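Q: Give me the 3D complex with zinc ion.
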Amino acid sequence: MRISATIRPIHADQSVCTHRVTSTGKPKEASCTGRAAYTATCSAGDWTQTGTTKAALEYSRDSHLRSHITQPATAASNA
Ligand SMILES: [Zn+2]
Ligand SMILES: [Zn+2]
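A: Here is the predicted complex, encoded as structure tokens.
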């Protein structure tokens, strides 16, 4: 299974924002309190990080995903 990490916008209360927003980030729907930050979650379930900018999270995510890639293959038992 390929591991990936998804970055999603969140509100100030940490709930995920699935609302539509304008191109400037302003909420389009009345139930939306506005996006306060972003959260990234690894599909392997071992990593979650929150940051105020998407760019910073993308950097952290790429670093984390690299840690999965460099894991040794399963041939280690053949010592
Ligand atoms: Zn929202
Ligand atoms: Zn992970």
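A quick observation: The CA atoms of residues 19 and 37 lie 14 Å apart.
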